[in-house]
Design goal:
There is one protein chain. With about 775 residues, the protein is an alpha/beta fold. Helices cover about 55% and strands about 10% of the residues. It has a four-stranded parallel β-sheet with strand order 1-6-2-5, with helices on both faces. Helix 16 packs across helix 18 and helix 30 packs antiparallel against helix 33. The longest helix is centred in the first third of the chain and has 21 residues. It starts with 11 loop residues before the first strand and ends with a helix.
């Protein structure tokens, strides 16, 4: 359409609507049939206007236009949903039938004006909450949905609907300021209206937009220039990827009770209202609710059904409705079918999902009125390349059916199938659930089990995932990159992402993402997450030739960054006696493993690590478990260590067990394999003497942490330690039975302490036996 000549003479009819309102849809239908306009202009994505034929291929509604956008800084996706009673859908179909040129005139959904908006047709209730609240008080209704039904869906058609809608929307818009995003959108839509009016001549133009925008667009048109060219449809900037595709939608996604932010709740109710009127909708859904309750073995009699119908009709008359509206129906059903006291609010008294613990009958009512309709696209509807690639891959790899599959990861075909399934899992495509398989990089797990469940939700999810790439590998890598960016400095999340990258066969992520990971690690402030990242990544870098990550440069950079950061953070930890921090110890253990197995190939600074270990182990400001771990780190890396002296230096009842926990977490092998020097006792010998020498009260203080420390030794090594202790004392007996005491060690220790107290009291009174035996064997049993 080029420039028009002459003054604008077209009659412009502006219809402000509430999205997914049957009353508004009827008004749109009647107006277009009456006026037979030259143009029907609709709030919708302008970049889809030239593809309206796709929208009218004969799909089963509901469907939606899914729009996506990606650049280096932003990823965005949004939906423009349509059902049979959506005013926008009626405008498209009736406009085409009337011979009008039909166009969407809003900015594309990828445009920055829609940043943060997941649904184009999100109502602006939050922007005019004050006036809606006053109207609810005036009409004695609970919320905006009930108010809308009372004012527009319930009254009989008396020819005043258009005026009442205009007055309502003018009122609510008049009390709120449009933001910059709305202003930009309204200015763009107004340009389309001016252009259409200039070209239409003396033929009518019908404009269908959300009621919030109606008055502003009209004002902009009336105050704008007389002549206007069609505005250009914006294109994504260079380097960005954007587009739109049709996707099947569902009533569940459309329903406000499931958290949908726009339009009307209870879509099945409004579908029936659109198709057969209020009386038919109320009657049909009452019977459906009763049927559902009976199927779930809830007692509902014919008398209950009659009572529900009677109460519904009575409430409608009492509230001044010509026929029952949605809340009349729901309140009538509750009054007739629920005799219990309800602890939760009735969900239709406010907008939002059902509260946990809702009454079973209320749940059935809400679900019946929500409906289970699922849209279907007509075969041949254009789809993103990803959809076709996934269909071919699933068929080629025999993964397109239903059931369970077991994959052998050591087999090339099994690994290929595993990677395809993991990529689909990362893309959140429903119907691909892993039952078992590797969960870390160092596990010797060579098989996976999956459950495949095809369903109606798969195609919409694949179409939406098509925004990430044309191939499954590219799309999965893009999602992983997005998750890395979203993780920020949360290195625990990064550990999961990196393992997913290995499972997907996407270990060679882009340099930009590698830099993001490195920056996150360098900024991490907690040792816990760093330990998880380091342990996972080191295992994958060292061992996993199965997944193709052994020697990966990306994973090597992560290992190097984690080691540097762990050592830097460890030196700054301060704290007095307290429970050993196991995640912190795991981080140091992972650092030890990296220094032992990757120092050469990755250029890790072993000398710097030994210097840190020496300083922390000698620091009185560091907590006991960290001092013990630092000593163990140096010992495990080959530093000269006087372990006996170190144990004696930590021999306070309140710190000994925690210090040993740190030592055993880092140097368990060294302790177990230690050969005491000439004249020495070794760590275990020193510890044996220390424990035996503890008084009852001190032993009770030390015992819990001592037990935790020895948990680092597996059962066979604990049995060997017990044998050494028996030999050291010259006692013959079963080490295994020593470890299998039927009594709780804490109970035994408390009993010993009580005996000592009683003994001291008796001695003070001159009643104690001449000599009290030392119970070293029992004390050792309680510890080990």
């Amino acid at each position: 359409m080029g420039a028009a000549t002459g003054r604008r003479t077209a009659e412009i009819t502006y219809i402000g609507v509430r999205h997914h309102s049957p009353a508004c849809a009827r008004l749109v239908r009647g107006t277009i049939r009456r006026l037979r306009p030259a143009f029907v202009l609709i709030e919708g994505p302008a970049d889809f206007s030239d593809r309206l034929d796709e929208l009218l291929l004969g799909h089963d509604l509901p469907v939606a236009i899914y729009s996506h956008y990606r650049d280096r800084e932003r990823v965005h996706g949004s939906w423009s949903p349509f059902c049979a009673y959506s005013p926008e859908w009626v405008a498209v179909t009736e406009g085409r039938a009337a011979g009008a040129e039909v166009r969407f005139i809003d900015l594309p959904a990828w445009h920055p004006a829609f940043a943060g908006l997941r649904n184009r047709y999100a109502d602006a209730d939050q922007r005019y909450a004050a006036v809606v609240e006053r109207l609810c008080e005036t009409f004695a209704v609970d919320n905006s949905d009930t108010l809308w039904d009372h004012m527009f869906e319930g009254p009989a058609d008396d020819g005043t609907l258009e005026e009442r809608l205009a007055a309502y929307f003018d009122l609510v818009r008049g009390e709120s300021e449009a933001g910059a995003d709305d202003t930009e959108r309204e200015a763009y839509m107004a340009r389309w209206v001016r252009a259409a009016a200039a070209e239409a001549g003396d033929r009518p133009v019908v404009v269908v937009t959300g009621g919030y925008h109606r008055a502003a667009i009209r004002r902009l048109v009336e105050t704008g220039p007389e002549e206007e060219r069609r505005p250009e449809v914006p294109a994504p900037p260079e380097g960005a990827i954007g587009g739109s595709y049709l996707v099947p939608y569902s009533f569940q996604r459309l329903d406000a009770f499931t958290g949908y932010q726009s339009g009307m709740p209870s879509p099945e109710y409004y579908q029936r209202l659109w198709e057969g009127g209020a009386e038919a909708a109320a009657a049909g859904l009452t019977e459906l609710v009763v049927k559902r309750l009976r199927e779930r073995r809830q007692p509902v009699s014919t008398a209950d059904l009659i009572a529900a119908r009677t109460l519904t009709d009575g409430l409608a008359r009492l509230r001044g409705h010509a026929a029952p509206v949605r809340t009349d129906l729901l309140d009538g059903l509750v009054a007739a079918l629920v005799s219990d006291d309800l602890e939760q609010r009735l969900p239709w008294t406010s907008r939002g999902p059902l509260d946990p613990g809702a009454h079973p009958a209320v749940i059935e009512m809400v679900e019946a009125l929500s409906g289970d309709r699922v849209g279907r696209l007509r075969p041949g509807t254009p789809a993103p390349p990803l959809v076709h690639e996934v269909e071919l891959e699933l068929e080629r790899l025999k993964l397109d059916g239903a059931g369970t599959v077991t994959l052998k990861l050591a087999d090339d075909r099994g690994l290929t199938r595993s990677r395809v399934l993991h990529r689909l899992r990362v893309l959140r495509i429903p119907g691909f659930d892993r039952d078992h398989g590797p969960s870390t990089g160092a596990e010797p797990v060579l098989d996976e089990g999956w459950t495949l469940t095809p369903g109606d939700r798969r195609l919409p999810a694949l179409i939406e995932a098509g925004a990430y790439g044309a191939t499954l590998e590219d799309a999965a890598a893009a999602v992983l990159e997005e998750r890395v960016a979203d993780a920020g400095n949360d290195v625990g999340v990064l550990a999961v992402v990196l393992f997913d990258a290995a499972l997907c066969g996407c270990a060679d992520l882009s340099d930009r993402i590698a830099g993001t990971i490195a920056a996150a690690i360098a900024g991490a402030s907690e040792l816990d997450g760093l330990g998880d990242v380091l342990a996972t990544t080191l295992g994958l870098w060292r061992h996993d030739r199965l997944l193709g990550t052994a020697g990966s440069p990306l994973f090597g950079r992560v290992v190097e960054g984690c080691v540097t950061r762990v050592l830097w953070l460890v030196e700054g930890v301060r704290g007095g006696p307290g429970p050993a921090d196991l995640p912190r110890l795991r981080a140091l253990a992972a650092t030890r493993d990296a220094l032992l197995h990757a120092a050469g190939p990755l250029g890790l600074d072993r000398d710097a690590a030994l210097a840190v270990a020496a300083r922390v182990s000698a620091s009185t400001a560091a907590p006991p478990d960290l001092r013990g771990a630092a000593f163990g780190l140096g010992w495990s890396l080959g530093a000269a260590a006087d372990a006996e002296r170190a144990v004696l230096g930590a021999a306070l009842p309140g710190t000994l067990g925690d210090w040993l926990t740190g030592l055993f977490a880092l140097a368990r092998d060294e302790v177990f394999a230690e050969e005491p020097r000439e004249g020495g006792r070794g760590v275990l010998g020193v510890l044996d003497d220390l424990v035996v020498g503890l008084g009852g009260d001190d032993f009770l203080v030390a015992l819990p942490a001592l037990r935790q420390a020895f948990e680092f030794f597996p059962p066979r090594e604990r049995e060997a330690i017990a044998e050494r202790l028996l030999e050291r004392r010259g006692v013959k007996g079963s080490a295994r039975s020593l470890l299998r005491s039927v009594q709780d060690p804490v109970t035994i220790a408390e009993a010993r302490a009580l005996e000592e107290k009683v003994g001291r009291l008796l001695a003070a009174e001159g009643l104690a036996p001449a000599d009290e035996p030392v119970r070293g064997e029992e004390r050792e049993e309680e510890t080990v």
